[in-house]
């Protein structure tokens, strides 16, 4: 199978697909902020977790085409992980914010001062990341999560 550089999802760099649970808690929102930081650092692109959960076909196809996927969950319920598994994805890495010493609360703006430190910790965990590629057969015309607006 021939591989080629990923260039269809134009919302970020070609290295990694990142999904965040973005849950209704401090840690869920921290997960989202960390995902944004990773994208803004040029390490990858962010995918729509809810789109995967809804089994939107193009989003599932794009996720399955990715070489590397990181799922950031806020807490041990691991909704992000379960969502990817629901969509048929099994080959991904998963980090959980509460495993990094943050206590879950329902203050949506809580612990924002820790975003930078936590981002660095998550990035350290994904230092192995290789360039993300898509395989032949992927829907190159499909803009994926960002709708090709960027
Ligand atoms: S993993 Fe935890 S924080 Fe994230 S959506 Fe699920 S319950 Fe909420």
Report on the architecture of this protein.
The protein contains 5 helices and 6 strands, in the order ββαβααβαβαβ. The strands form 2 sheets. Strands 3-2-4-5 form a 4-stranded parallel β-sheet, with helices on both faces. It has a two-stranded antiparallel sheet with strand order 1-6. α1 links the parallel β2 and β3. α1 packs across α5. Bound molecules: iron/sulfur cluster (SF4). Iron/sulfur cluster binds next to α1.
Number of domains: 1
Task: Note the overall shape.
Answer: globular
Quote the beta fraction.
Answer: 5-15%
Largest sheet: 4 strands, parallel
Q: Can you give the helix content as a percent range?
A: 25-40%
* Topology pattern, helix = H, strand = E: EEHEHHEHEHE
Taking the alpha carbons of the first and last residues, their distance comes to 29 Å
Q: Look at the structure and give the mean pLDDT.
A: 81
Q: Number of helical runs? A: 5
Spans of at least 5 consecutive residues whose pLDDT stays below 50 are 1-14, 130-150
Question: Which distinct ligands sit in these coordinates?
Answer: iron/sulfur cluster
Q: For the CA atoms, what is the radius of gyration? A: 15 Å
Number of strands: 6
Strand order of the largest sheet: 3-2-4-5
Structural class: alpha/beta
Task: Give a quick rundown of the structure.
The protein has 150 residues and is α/β, with parallel strands linked by helices. It has helices spanning 26-40, 49-53, 57-65, 79-86, 115-125, and strands at residues 3-5, 17-20, 45-46, 69-73, 93-96, 133-135.
């Amino acid at each position: 199978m021939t591989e080629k550089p990923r260039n269809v999802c134009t919302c970020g760099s070609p290295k990694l697909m990142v999904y965040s649970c973005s849950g209704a808690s401090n840690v869920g929102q921290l997960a989202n902020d960390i995902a944004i930081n990773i994208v803004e650092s040029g390490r990858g692109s962010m995918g729509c977790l809810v789109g995967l959960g809804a089994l939107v076909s193009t989003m599932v196809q794009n996720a399955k085409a990715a070489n590397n996927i990181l799922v950031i969950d806020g807490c041990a319920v691991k909704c992000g992980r379960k969502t990817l598994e629901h969509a048929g994805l099994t080959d991904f890495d998963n980090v959980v914010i509460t495993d990094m010493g943050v206590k879950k609360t329902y203050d949506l703006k809580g612990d924002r001062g820790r975003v930078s430190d936590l981002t660095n910790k998550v990035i350290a965990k994904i230092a192995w990341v290789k360039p993300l590629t898509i395989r032949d057969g992927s829907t190159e015309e499909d803009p994926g999560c960002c709708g090709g607006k960027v």
